Amino acid sequence: MPAVAPRSGDAIFASAERVNAELFTLTYGAIVRQLITDLEEVDEVNKQLDQMGYNIGVRLIDEFLAKSNVSRCVDFKETAEVIAKVGFKMFLGVTATVTNWDAEGTTCSLVLEDNPLVDFVELPDTCQGLHYCNVLNGVVRGALEMVSMKTEVTWIRDMLRGDDAYELQVKLLKQIPEEYPYKDD
Ligand code: MYR
Question: Are strands 107-112 and 149-157 parallel, antiparallel or unpaired?
């Protein structure tokens, strides 16, 4: 019997997936670190991360719609559930809980108990104003804009700032009606 048993295909894929996730987390950390060095001001870093996320979100929506097979959501409540349960799972490997709805059904929170972006991260005192995960705001905002929803996305709780969870508030500002490309005569 060999001293080291060969690993099954599943075990190899699981470990490759873990390495990919760690590489992604470390690469994101390196990007944030470089932005802090280049921009010096944490507010500027927050803005830049949000913009980067937006640019990712406007592209990622195509992949999301193609892979997820989700159909048009009937309302913003369904959209929020789709983001939390399908979108986050697909791109971040975790799901979020949708909560804190306002009376109009246009503002809610996505709460993450687990956030792979922050594995290995500890913020120094000089970075206290940093929203380390601000890329996620932009991704959600950009992706939703591509399906005709203008939103404002804001961090309400952030464990790197001492809170007990990550809470992202998503506010629907405007639903842009989709234009039918042909005129009825
Ligand atoms: C529709 O009504 O057209 C469906 C809308 C679904 C929008 C889902 C957006 C997914 C955003 C993924 C965010 C991932 C963050 C890591």
Answer: unpaired
**3-state DSSP assignment of residue 116:** helix
Domain parsing of the chain, residue ranges: 10-175
Kindly report, residue by residue over 128-185, the tens digit of the pLDDT: 899 999 999 999 999 999 999 999 999 999 999 889 999 999 999 999 876 655 655 5
Report the chain's C-alpha Rg in angstroms.
19
Dihedral sign from CA coordinates of 101, 102, 105, 108: negative
Phi, psi of 164 (to 5 degrees): -95, 0
Give the pLDDT confidence of 35-49 residue by residue, as tens digits. Answer: 999 998 999 999 999
> How far is ligand 1, taken at its centre, from the CA of residue 61, in Å?
6
Distance, CA of 44 to CA of 84 (rounded, Å):
28
Q: What is the CATH number of domain 10-175?
A: 3.30.1380.20
Task: Look at residue 102 and give its three-state secondary structure.
Answer: coil
CB 127 near ligand 1, within 6 Å: no
Is the minimum distance from the CB of 94 to ligand 1 under 6 angstroms? Answer: no
| Cβ neighbours of 159 (radius 10 Å) | 17
